[in-house]
Specification:
about 350 residues, alpha/beta, Rossmann fold, six-stranded mixed beta sheet, 11 helices, about 40% helix
Length: about 350
């Protein structure tokens, strides 16, 4: 029996739009309007983070709980958009859920997208933001605990920054939160799925990786660095604990499952779940669907448990007193369900 098509028309249109460079530029036109949006119920700030190469600044949004924000974990969140489009304000609902789950500060950079400049521009912008947060944590009201988060390409950037922080030792990451991240440019690792069940498909991925890696490929560099494509990292040991999920109707499913398996084999810690009948960015584009509500609740509960376990500030509830722990306690293993 054929499964019903539950993909929202707006999501199908958006995904069709970003299958060409012209469409990507049209999509990107929303960034200017988005920059003026405000997340209600919290303190909204905009800062300019200087680039380490001296080439200008990165427009960065900061969201804080109202009141006296002190000793809170800081979530550095990278937006999705296939590396090529998107802007921080598109994820206000996600930021709100995090702040409601556990009081925290969210810092979200408007990094350089690939239609403007390929790798390493986005990665460097994101890592410069991580280092800026490290230096300004106390002024922001943070405890010093830094969490890296992102969805889709933003999840890939979160993992690439976690790899760099591990290698350089200049930023301590409490945990990383990549949601259905883009981490592998090799199409041989993308499963064959029913096109009618997909939003993000092979055409989207091929174009996104082409734009992001075009400078590397143009110079015929065959050793693609892990900071560009995290799945190519030879060694996953020493990475921070991971929290993430993916849907089984997502071509990213196999590459993420494999990455998590490798992380665990290297001695890492992960809370990871595969959601059935779930397409790419479903909880973001169709938040009122029953499955989306289930996903968002799971993410909120799991985020709370990870903060309580891996962040230094604030009390640590025991598993018996923490309602999230029973379903989302961090483990050395893969918590998968389809």
């Amino acid at each position: 029996m054929a499964q019903p098509d539950i993909r929202p028309a707006s999501q199908k249109f958006a995904m069709a739009l970003v299958r060409s460079q012209t469409g990507l530029r049209l999509s990107r036109m929303g960034a200017k309007k988005g920059a003026k949006q405000v997340l209600d119920g919290c303190v909204n700030e905009t800062v300019e983070v200087p680039r380490s190469n001296g080439q200008g600044t990165i427009r960065t949004r900061v969201y804080k709980p109202k009141g006296d924000a002190r000793d809170l974990p800081i979530v550095v969140s990278f937006h999705g958009g296939g590396f090529a489009t998107g802007w921080p304000e598109r994820h206000h609902a996600f930021y709100r859920r995090l702040m409601e789950s556990r009081p925290c500060i969210v810092v979200a950079p408007a990094y350089t997208v690939s239609i403007d400049a390929p790798f390493p521009a986005a990665h460097d912008d994101c890592y410069d933001t991580v280092l800026w947060v490290r230096e300004h944590a106390a002024k922001l009201g943070g405890s010093g605990d830094i969490i890296l988060a992102g969805n889709s390409s933003g999840g890939g950037l979160a993992l690439s920054c976690a790899l760099r922080a591990r290698d350089c030792g200049d930023a301590k990451i409490a945990f990383v939160m990549p949601l259905y991240p883009m981490i592998d440019d090799r199409s041989s690792n993308w499963p064959q799925l029913d096109k009618k069940l997909l939003t993000w498909n092979v055409t989207n991925s091929v174009l996104s990786w082409h734009l992001y890696l075009k400078d590397i490929r143009a110079r015929k560099r065959y050793e693609i660095p892990a900071y560009a494509v995290p799945a190519r990292a030879a060694d996953l040991s020493g990475l921070p604990p991971l929290l993430g999920f993916v849907g089984n109707h997502d071509i990213i499913f196999a590459e993420y499952q494999h990455f998590v398996d490798r992380l665990i084999a290297a001695g890492g810690t992960a809370v990871f779940k595969v959601f059935a009948e779930t397409f790419h960015a479903m909880e973001d584009s169709a938040p009122n669907l029953p499955r989306s509500r289930e996903i968002n609740q799971w993410v909120s509960d799991s985020f709370s448990a990870m903060v309580d376990t891996f962040c230094t500030g604030g009390p640590k509830p025991s598993p018996a007193s923490n309602p999230a722990s029973a379903n989302a306690a961090p483990v050395r293993g893969s918590v998968s369900a389809v």
